[in-house]
Automatic annotation (TrEMBL):
Keywords: Hydrolase, Membrane, Transmembrane, Transmembrane helix. GO terms for molecular function: phosphatase activity. SMART domains: PP2C_SIG (SM00331). InterPro entries: Bact_Sigma-Reg, PPM-type-like_dom_sf, PPM-type_phosphatase-like_dom. It comes from Streptomyces melanosporofaciens. This is Stage II sporulation protein E (SpoIIE). Residues 143-356 form the PPM-type phosphatase domain. The chain crosses the membrane at residues 20-38, 68-84, 90-110.
Length: 374
């Protein structure tokens, strides 16, 4: 399951726009021709023919721009035959669309070259996304999982928020965190945290030792004023979930009794700031039975504001969307988040939902293929 992005426009609308775009310069040229024929000052409209090839440069390739330019010059020459102005005057007026057409061809070629470079950059970004924020399957061990992620930077695929979930010899373990800052420095720090977590989660039996290894690595590599807030969680045995909160927003536990924010019993500083003092991270154990869900998120979710500068009330909105399918829950919750902010987030935002299915439902799902084959 790949991180979700802002949804693109309807494909049918994109196709319609792509086919309509080249027709707009032709329509403009025809409109100028009609105005010139309908008025007594026909040649005065000829410079406006340059609008056609200029607009085509933003939508068509060099050959397409050249064809539009030739059409503009041909229409201008035809209009010149309808007037009584000297040939010198007509030539000067026709020079405008001709010169603009040549310049537009060059601009179109440059735009195409930059588009190819951007496509290459995007492909590299996709590879970086898969290496850093690896796709999370819809089921890990006995858990159903869903992830939603949006980077704030325009055209970005990754940002300063991080997450990972993997099965280990000590049960399923996961991390959701938020790096201070944005851009490439934040991505570099996120890569460091995830790399250490993926190694330590397999090696360390104790979840606190996993956090300690991340802290040691950050203390050697981070600038003094940089840090990472994070929640590290693990499910070592049936019926309980272990949590270590390092200055991060409290996870939401969804169970039969309702939805509660799991506040840390002993607040600890963010990762990377242990040398400044404060309490050490502590292990918190919460019950986690069949049907329970755990929602982890970053501050880009709860600090998202609408036009009235009101924060997104996550704790109030989650009950509207909770269902037995984590992917559906996060899809509808993410849509409401985007609606709240007006369509675009201004900070990286990550949501990870973990659900433990009811044991009877799991067995029924496992028996369905054999029953159907019989």
């Amino acid at each position: 399951m790949f991180p979700a992005r802002l949804r693109p426009s309807d494909p049918d609308q994109l196709v319609a726009r792509r086919h309509l775009a080249p027709a707009v310069p032709v329509i403009i040229i025809c409109g100028v021709a009609l105005l010139a024929l309908a008025t007594s000052e026909g040649l005065a409209w000829l410079p406006l023919l340059a609008v056609g090839p200029a607009l085509a440069a933003a939508q068509c390739g060099p050959y397409g721009v050249m064809r539009i330019g030739l059409l503009a010059v041909a229409v201008g020459a035809f209009l010149g035959t309808q007037g009584v102005e000297p040939m010198r005057t007509q030539a000067i007026l026709l020079a405008t669309p001709a010169a603009v057409s040549l310049a537009s061809c060059g601009a179109s070629a440059l735009r195409r070259r930059r588009e190819r470079v951007l496509a290459d950059v995007r492909s590299v970004a996709e590879a970086a996304q898969n290496a850093l924020l690896k796709p999370v399957p819809s089921r890990v061990g006995q858990f159903q999982v869903a992830v939603r992620y949006s980077a704030a930077a325009a055209e970005a695929r990754v940002g300063g928020d991080l997450y990972a979930l993997l099965p280990t010899p000590y049960g399923v373990r996961l991390i959701v965190g938020d790096v201070r800052g944005k851009g490439l420095p934040a991505v570099s720090t996120a890569a460091l945290v995830l790399g250490v977590f993926r190694e330590a989660a397999y090696d360390e039996p104790d979840l606190l030792d996993v956090v300690a290894r991340i802290e040691r690595s950050l203390s050697r590599n981070l600038a003094p004023d940089d840090f990472v807030t994070a929640v590290v969680a693990g499910y070592p045995s049936d019926g309980r979930m272990e949590l270590v909160n390092c200055g991060h927003a409290p996870p939401l536990l969804v169970g039969e009794s309702g939805i509660i924010a799991v506040e840390p019993t002993c607040p600890a500083p963010p990762l990377g700031l242990a040398s400044l003092g404060g309490d050490l991270p502590s292990l918190q154990v919460v019950p986690f039975a069949g049907g329970d869900q755990l929602l982890l998120y970053t501050d880009g979710v709860i600090e998202a504001r609408d036009r009235g500068r009101e924060y997104f009330p996550l704790l109030e909105r989650v009950p509207r969307h909770v269902c037995d399918e984590p992917s559906r829950t996060l899809a509808s919750l993410h849509d409401e988040l985007l609606t709240h902010v007006g369509g675009r987030l201004h900070d990286d935002a990550a949501l990870l939902l973990l659900r433990k299915p009811v044991l009877g439902a799991v067995r029924a799902a496992a028996d369905m293929p054999s029953a159907s084959s019989a």
